[in-house]
DNA sequence: TTGAAGTTGACAACGGGGAC
DNA sequence: GTCCCCGTTGTCAACTTCAA
């Protein structure tokens, strides 16, 4: 139940954090903000609201205030509601909206700070541009061009606030486009190199051990994109042989035969190490027997031994094609990404040594190497004809007469891959383990909250167990296993009590995730007895009070102008509720809107 | 080759409506 | 009034394609 004080906190959080809220951008950023806000409310009021509930509550009030507004202008769509009456005054200035003139405001602030920053800028001008320049999000990472005024920061200095993240909403005529990019640990090597070169060139000192965001101008973005495109065009090469034969003659790899006897023969000990971790990055292309290629993938694998390397490739191919395969079902070859022809076999240790030498050569030349896995289904059919006969027949029938096939037909056990069988077994175990007699369905129960385990969730959980990131008892660290997905009907009466007990037992903030992995340790809760004190807002000085209203109402200076006159009349915040129109007239607060805003704001401290 | 526009996918915001 | 669900719309970021 959303009581007044909870709603008050929700509105205040949203209002005070409006600028931050809109600076978060798209994706999951705003979701995280609502989750955080719900967490704060939960911490204070010992509730179990989810981020979604907080979001919906807030937007519900917005909806009611809109209806109220329509009602006031006698629009037939309007409706007077309790929420509308209560919050309309506060919501009518649409404080939750994205600040439209954010960029201009920042420019105004810059003007104010002009005198302060002039001296600093003078120092910057005198400083050599290659000396320890900290990267700012408002500059192009690739060429140090200002994303706002377009000046070259290598030779010029501008007054733009380059700490503001460039977005569509703050584009200028000079630089109409900007491109936000993320540095990811697993991004293409060529892209990494591109970024690291710029980092070295401009001495940004970026931390490449973790993800970070940067910006490109159009030119640098195009360059950056084309680096990866070159790699992708290689992977899209069509087979030159029209007979659908593999470019390289299929050679069956028998890892045990070639490697087993020389188990774990370390290549790196014989050759120069490739890098510190014996890892190599390359593009893997899987070619089916019909000559068609699956999408290429840039991979980084451990290449300390041939066996390890081949095993990783095999596992990856299994993931791509969705079933387990035998070593006899494919052959490997390698070639330079830019070279034509079939390449060289990669079927035994000597090939692997050659492969590593070639890799090092190409790496020094900043070229890439491609590993091609040619599938060889014919061998599979001969070896496993009985095992896969039914599966193949089914797939043939599906191709020939797909219309007759029932879409939801139950798959036969014999048609399942070993992986699917294991998943199925785990799902059965999970169903048993988490069967809820109350709901008569499998439910994951934590903190007294029941999350119905759908087929999708069960399969996801089973996959996580296979990955080693979950067990039968511990749920996966996936957002789908969050309480926010649990329906109201699944919230049992003991939920609040249990959450309360747990929060008393452990000094952590109860948040919306039920999975133990999601329990983030926060600052300890204040003693329960202090909650009433916390919920009462401290009364600010009249100066603080008016400044806050001014900030909330658009920072136009409408309210701070009254600071002096309020002080002259010795009016404090607690007096405001008693002021009438005459008093406001004396104080010079002429507009009705200002008066109502001031009164409404003062009510918070009653 | 380069700069810019167009396309696509993901997600939050929003609005309508039903159940309680 | 509250909560929830569902469909639509708007925004953002990443990627692709076009044109000079």
Automatic annotation (TrEMBL):
Protein name: SAM domain-containing protein
Lineage of origin: Eukaryota, Fungi, Fungi incertae sedis, Mucoromycota, Glomeromycotina
């Amino acid at each position: 139940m959303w009581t007044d004080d909870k709603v008050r906190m929700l509105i205040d959080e949203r209002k005070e954090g409006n600028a931050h809220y809109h600076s978060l951008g798209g994706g999951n950023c705003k979701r995280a903000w609502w989750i955080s806000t719900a967490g704060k409310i939960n911490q204070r009021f010992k509730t179990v609201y989810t981020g979604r509930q907080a979001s919906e509550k807030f937007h519900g009030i917005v909806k009611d205030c809109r209806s109220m507004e329509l009602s006031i202008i006698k629009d037939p769509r309007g409706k007077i509601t309790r929420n509308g009456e209560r919050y309309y005054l506060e919501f009518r200035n649409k404080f939750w909206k994205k600040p439209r003139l954010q960029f201009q405001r920042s420019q105004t602030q810059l003007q104010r700070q002009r005198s302060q920053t002039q001296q600093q800028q003078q120092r910057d001008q005198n400083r050599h541009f290659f000396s320890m320049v900290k990267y700012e999000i408002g500059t192009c990472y690739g060429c140090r061009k200002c994303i706002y005024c377009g000046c070259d920061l290598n030779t010029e200095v501008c007054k733009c606030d380059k700490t503001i993240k460039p977005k569509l909403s703050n584009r200028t005529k000079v630089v109409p486009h900007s491109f936000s990019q993320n540095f990811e640990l697993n991004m293409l090597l060529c892209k990494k190199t591109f970024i690291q070169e710029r980092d070295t060139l401009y001495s940004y000192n970026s931390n490449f051990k973790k993800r970070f965001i940067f910006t490109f101008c159009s030119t640098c973005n195009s360059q950056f994109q084309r680096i990866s495109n070159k790699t992708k065009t290689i992977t899209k090469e069509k087979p030159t042989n029209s007979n659908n034969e593999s470019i390289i003659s299929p050679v069956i790899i028998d890892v045990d035969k070639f490697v087993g006897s020389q188990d774990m023969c370390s290549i790196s000990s014989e050759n120069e190490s490739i890098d510190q971790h014996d890892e190599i990055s390359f593009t893997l292309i899987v070619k089916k027997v019909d000559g068609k290629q699956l999408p290429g993938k840039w991979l980084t694998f451990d290449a300390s031994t041939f066996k390890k390397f081949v095993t990783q490739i095999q596992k990856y191919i299994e993931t791509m094609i969705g079933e387990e395969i035998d070593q006899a079902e494919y052959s490997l070859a390698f070639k330079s990404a830019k070279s034509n022809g079939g390449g060289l076999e990669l079927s035994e240790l000597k090939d692997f040594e050659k492969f590593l030498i070639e890799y090092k050569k190409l790496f020094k030349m900043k070229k890439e190497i491609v590993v091609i896995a040619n599938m060889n289904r014919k061998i599979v059919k001969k070896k496993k004809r009985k095992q896969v006969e039914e599966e193949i027949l089914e797939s043939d029938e599906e191709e020939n007469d797909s219309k007759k096939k029932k879409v939801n037909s139950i798959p036969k056990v014999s048609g399942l891959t070993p992986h699917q069988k294991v998943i199925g077994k785990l799902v059965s175990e999970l169903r048993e383990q988490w069967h809820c007699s109350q709901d008569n369905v499998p439910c994951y129960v934590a903190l007294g909250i029941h999350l119905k385990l759908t087929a999708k969730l069960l399969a996801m959980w089973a996959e996580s167990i296979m990955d080693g990131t979950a067990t039968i008892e511990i749920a996966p660290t996936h957002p789908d296993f969050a309480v926010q997905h649990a329906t109201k009907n699944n919230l049992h009466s003991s939920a609040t009590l249990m959450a309360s007990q747990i929060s008393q037992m452990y000094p952590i903030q109860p948040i919306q995730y039920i999975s133990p992995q999601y329990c983030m340790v926060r600052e300890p809760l204040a003693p329960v007895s202090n909650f009433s004190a916390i919920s009462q807002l401290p009364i600010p000085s009249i100066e603080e009070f008016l400044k806050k209203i001014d900030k909330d109402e658009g920072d136009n200076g409408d309210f701070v102008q009254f600071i002096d006159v309020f002080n002259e009349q010795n009016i404090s915040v607690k007096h405001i509720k008693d002021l009438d129109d005459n008093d406001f007239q004396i104080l010079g607060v002429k507009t009705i809107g200002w008066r109502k805003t001031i009164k409404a704001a003062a009510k918070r401290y009653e």
